[in-house]
Predict the structure.
Amino acid sequence: MPMLTNLIRGMKSLLRSANVERDLDDELQGFLDESMADKQRSGYSPQQAEHLARVEMGSTNTVKHHIRSVGWETRMENLLQDIRYTIRTLLRSPGFTAVAVLSLALGIGANTAIFTLIRQVVMKQLPVQNPQELYSFGAAGAGGMLGGVDIGTVELFPYDFARQLQQQPGPFQSTAAYSSFAPMVNIRIPGSAEAIQAPGKLVTGNFFQVLQASPLLGRTLQPSDDTVKNGNPVTVISYHFWLQSMSADPTVVGKTITINSIPFTILGVMPEAFHDLKYGVRPTDFWFPLTMAPSVMVQDNILERDHYFLDMVARRNLTHSLTADQHWLDSQMRNYARAAAGATLSPARQQEIDHITTPLTSAARGLSSLRNQYGDSLLILSVIVAVVLLIACANLANFLLARAIARQREVSTRLALGSSRARILGQSILEALTLSLTGGLLGLGFAFVITRALIAFVMRGSPDTVLSAHPDGVVLSFTFAISVVAGLLFGLAPALQFARSAAGPTTLSPSTRSTANSSGRFWPKALITSQVVLALLLLVVAGLFLRTLRNLQDQSLGFERTHLLIAEIKPDIAGYTPENVPVLNQRMLESLSAIPGVRSASLADTPPISSGAWRSSMHPTGYTPGQNEEMGALLRRVSGRYFETTGVEIVSGRGLAPSDTSTATKVVVVNQTLANKYYPHGDAIGRTIGVDLDTNGPWNIVGIAKDTRALDLRGAKQEPLIYLPIVQLSGAHDSFANIILVRTVGDPTMTTRAVRGALHSVDPNLPILNIRTMQEHLDTFTSSETLISRLTSTFAILAVLLSAIGLYGVMSFNVARRTNEIGIRMALGASNSGVQWMVLRESLWLLAIGLAIGLPATLIVARFLRSQLYQMSPFDPVVFAAATIGIAIVTIVSTWLPSRRAASIDPMVALRYE
Amino acid sequence: MSIERKSRMGQHDVVQGTLEMLILKTLALEPTHGYGVATRIEQVSQGVFRVNPGSLLPALARMEQAGSVKSEWRTSENNRRAKYYKLTARGRKALAAEEETWNRQVSAIARIMQASAKATSEA
């Protein structure tokens, strides 16, 4: 402490300005002078007068010290004293302090973790200049390539339209386009043997200028890099790729790497914080000029009209009205559509074109698929963790309240000895803040661990991520703020109790211990009741999410989910052509089928369930479509043993067979929905169907397969689906298979290595993007549901535990406080069981009131979750009953011990208690 | 609790806890400097109470911090630079409150003193 005192003294002399010191001297001197003058007037000699005046004043330094001590430094000294006192008090009851700090740390840690993710996933702006000026054309939620559609009907754009707007941006400052998805490319780095695969985007040359994003090294792309089809082999690489694959080489700019067999020059490296405008879980690693699209995407005609694969973004002039800008954009798209439609335009078509629009959508925070997928879950979770923290606060309020009551005597004594009421209140708040800030500090550690676990879950084992668990300044301030708010929240109740005890002049009497005023009993009960309400709410929400997840997972999918391995390959970027890929396909199937423990293997364009879809318009013979009827179907290209391998049941006719070769009659299998919709009389088999593909039909329907979950787990609608044999397809892309399905006898993960080996033996350069089981693949469809149900149940259990601790604490304290009274009751003839029942009854009452408030409140809240649930009512009786019973059991269990203690009080001891 | 204490010159320090009230009252009459407050208390109490500068000046500083008085530098009647103190609105309110409390306490004490005198005489 002397060190601190010295420090403060030093600070005083430093901070107190010379002016203030001089004023102080002047005032004292003035006083002395006046006093001396007066004394001389009453007849003293000047010397006597001065002597007397000085004696009266005493040491001027002491007076000055007294005056100075009125300033803030003294308060600082007091504060330090109080902090020491608080820490001593807290350390004197280590058990209480540990429970308090730990429950706060969990509550604050959970809040910080969720906030860290919300900040990154939902709130963070793009790390570019003036991001608020960026507007996307549409939400850019989709990624893919479409043909045969109108501009404006999907939020994707063709190359020529993008170029037109880039050259004439109209009211916008500028516009740019980029591929709506990041195709995988095959990369060979000089000096390393293995080729690697990474995602790259195709962007217009002005993309980085429009975003106003600056590079870390070198330069970004420029319009002059984007001029000649396949003639601009340059690229900008991500920080991540630079670090992982280029060893953070500072001289990387100007070096050459081979991408899809073409040497590309590296122009620059983007900074770490830049994850692209539109990003998903996996960060983009390359940006190529759009003119390189044919070789990067391995599709020569991609830049021609009718390939809708670009997203567009504009930098707006914020002084213009959004409506006017929107109007201009719509008119551009309508003109484009009119030009495409040609001279003859039916009035109906004209009307359609007049309704084309794509809403300008703010892209200030980037376009994140993570936000789409997890945004809602994270916001729900943020409410849930706030509730957990509230419960923890209620607990601490109760504990501190109990201590405040127990310490009334001490407080009264201190007041009587002249301590100021403000200081005692301050100390009580200080104690709460010390607890909450310590909890917050520990909570930061918890938050880091929780966030890391959450990110690992979201990433599903992928090492590359756009998310980080490290707290930044904003997160730290958030943690500090909620710690302070929590501290004030639970520090308020005991502080008010102190204020009351200070007002009562008779608190020295010991009798007040057993007969506290009614308001002193009200608050603990109110807090317990609100804990019951909140815990019930969390249990119900957790129950609803758990059951939703189970409903999603347990539904019938139409295919087998076990013993199935999925390998993703990419033959096109390794240089395979439509001519030689059938041989590869054949050899892969042979090699895979030879693996011991493999029942069957098949090729496909996608797994049986896949959010990516290949669609086309089609024409079932014998069916006359209604006016404007959408005649489309999902397409799956598969190899012969697909139905055996996936377990999709053939309900009628036959599946595909080895005899369906490239030269044989063209055959397809359709799903039940297609068969029933277009051939309601059950005569689908034997009919033909036309499909708008590079390969001409007609296709003979030879079998009907059972409907499957083809796109997602939630969608209600079944779509028509056509299975085409891959060997009978031709054209630039249609003979490529990107997925290998392997049905195994035993655990499919045991076969992973053998599958890899088999593919390697066919072609060591064949890119294998990943190998996973069907179960792992299915898990990606329920990831946000899994996340939210796991976290809500964890938090609900935490909340119930905290409430139980709170209830136990309050009941134990009450029993201890009423020892005297209980002793009297027993002396007057109350039975043990009667006393126990008396204590139990009190908590059962609280439970009943909590349920009476909590059940209706939960019903109201549950309604908001309807859209998150699957095949169940938000008022599911099972969930509500289970939550109610759970709360009741916890209440009884946590009151049982205190009630036993009450019942075992010895009246003789109790009466002497005090 | 000792209410008063003999001082060297046959005078008394002010009753404990009343110094600020007395200062407020003095300043309510007219703004003045520290020495002015001291002399006025002494004069009005006809020499019974005296305030020594060691407690007066810190009290003024405290009251200034609390906002019940404010100060400015002026030239005194003796042509010296002096710090003048003046009552603020808050100070006026504080004075009214303290006066009321004081009056209640004095009359209560007076009643107690009479009652105990009676009790002693009856015994």
In short: The interface with chain B takes residues 23, 26-28, 30-31, 33-35, 37-38, 56-58, 62-63, 66-67, 69-71 of chain A (CB under 8 Å).
